[in-house]
Amino acid sequence: MALSCAVINEAAGQDVGRIEGSVTDARTAQPLAVATVFIDGRGIGTTTTPEGTFALPNVPAGTHRLQARRIGYATTSRTVTVEAGQTARVVFALSETAVTLEEVVVTGTAAEVRAKEVGNAIDAIGAL
Question: Do residues 95 and 74 make contact, with C-beta atoms less than 8 angstroms apart?
Answer without folding.
Answer: yes
